[in-house]
């Protein structure tokens, strides 16, 4: 479909509860905007570190 999404966690999130008129006991944890990317959008080629690179065993 060509749709993309990303996760967004603005801080503080209280504005969203007010905007959506939700009760005080409800709190947003994550916003996931969805849409079509720009024709010239690029995604960085990120590499995940190996477990050995981020772990210290004692």
Please give a structural write-up.
The protein has 58 residues and is α+β, with helices and mostly antiparallel strands. The protein has a domain of 38 residues. A two-stranded antiparallel sheet has the order 1-2. The radius of gyration is 18 Å and the shape is flat. It starts with a strand and ends with a helix.
Describe what is shown at a glance.
This protein is of the alpha+beta class.
Radius of gyration: 18 Å
- Regarding quaternary structure, what we see is single chain
* Proportion of residues in β-strands: 5-15%
Helix content: 10-25%
Coarse shape = flat
* Number of distinct helices: 2
Number of strands: 2
Low-confidence stretches: none
Secondary-structure element string: EHEH
Largest sheet: 2 strands, antiparallel
- Which sequence of strands runs across the widest sheet? 1-2
Mean pLDDT rating: 88
Class derived from helix and strand content: alpha+beta
- Ends: how far apart? 48 Å
Summarize the SSE layout with pairings.
Blueprint lengths: L3 E2 L8 H6 L14 E2 L15 H4 L4
Antiparallel strand pairs: 1-2
Short key terms for the protein model shown above:
58 residues; alpha+beta; two-stranded antiparallel sheet; 2 strands; 17% helix; 7% strand
